[in-house]
Amino acid sequence: MVSVASRQARLRWAAVVCGAVALCALPVAVRALPVPDSRIGAAALRARILASAHVPYQGYAESTVSLGIPELPDLSDVSMLLNGTTDQYAWYRSPGRWRAAVITAAGEEDTYQAGAATYLWEYDHNLLTRIIGSPPARLPRAADLLPPALGRRLLVLAAGAGHLSRLPSRRIAGIDAAGLRVLPADPRTTVAAVDIWADPATGLPAAVQIFARGSGRPVLISRFLQLTESPPALSAVAPDPAPGVDTATAEFPDVSRILNGFGPPLPGQLAGLTRVQEPGGLAPLGAYGTGFTRFAVIPLPDRVGFQALSAALAAGAARVLLPDGAAVEIRTPLLTVDLATSRFGGPVFLLAGPVTPALLRRAATGLLAKSVVVP
Predict the structure, then answer these.
(1) What's the fold here for domain 42-251?
(2) 159-195 confidence digits (pLDDT tens)
(3) 255-371 CATH pick, 1.20.1090, 1.10.10, 3.30.70, 3.40.1000
(4) Whole-angstrom Cα distance, residue 212 to residue 266?
(5) Phi and psi dihedrals of 141, rounded to 5?
């Protein structure tokens, strides 16, 4: 009787163990299943991705960027963002209601978009800051690297500037995502290809890769590790500071007041590329070109300009002689940056974009020639 009971107990425990093993192996088995390829065409997939801004989602994403940009004064946060891995949770209800939480060694840093206001939560400072207004131009932030925002932005930038084709589907965070590749047509850009995988039904991007010319590995990878296409609770995207949390209110800096009137007027063309609409009507800020063949020009105030020059030279940037001055050039696989100065004095011009060094040098040469004021 005892042996029969023991045998039955062993059988029950064996069943429990086998069931537990089966449950643990289920996610692996699901990932191993072949991914059915979507029949959606490249143009239709692009249209769905561009129309996906109102698709709600919540998930966990990892972005790895290896641009090799040296740390410049007052821009350490941007340098870290473009030279490392960023992990963040995201809760997204609509373009005006979302939250992104970056995981840091000290805790987390959250960005809330709550209608017209932006909130920044800093765990290590126990501070919630409400920022009023909308900046005409701003620095990159971690939420820009989330696959939905990044994928849509890249497709807008690539409009009419490259060849579209389908890629085989991939299973990403449980979604059988259809692949889209953009191949830029202009050889003056350093971007070789942009790959986006998105839900073929909703167009929501689940992963993005950017390849630089001459590189077989992507210089930027952003993908969801967990993703649910459902609206998060309103409480998840509404800043609600706990008792004891410090609060503050700030305004975006009036960049137009600071920069308008600073530096000579920028020309209508540089290096054969036409100047495009300045963000927010800021006359001193220039953008030239179309598609991925685009670069920005910013005149820097004296202190910031010469600090940037010193930092770039200390990081090993090359010094390039130009007909009317010189430039300190930072080359990365994807981004080229020139800090150009005239031998006759004047501001330091920052030129940057995903373009070849030859194009940016030509632009810097033309800029200095048009801004020369002989004493």
Answers:
(1) outer membrane lipoprotein receptor (LolB), chain A (2.50.20)
(2) 888 899 999 999 999 999 999 999 999 999 999 999 9
(3) 3.40.1000
(4) 29
(5) -130, 165
Which secondary structure element, helix H or strand E, spans residue 48, and what is its range? helix 42-50
Distance between CA atoms of 348 and 263, rounded to whole angstroms?
A: 9
Q: Which two tokens stand for residue 260?
A: 């308008």
* 142 burial type by CB count under 10 A (0-12 exposed, 13-18 middle, 19+ buried): buried
The stretch 47-64 carries a mean pLDDT of 97
In the chain the beta strands, taken as DSSP E runs, fall at 57-66, 83-94, 97-104, 107-114, 117-122, 127-132, 162-172, 175-184, 191-198, 205-212, 220-228, 246-251, 269-270, 273-276, 286-290, 293-300, 318-322, 325-331, 336-342, 348-353
Residue pLDDT, tens place only, 235-264: 999 998 888 888 888 776 545 444 554 567
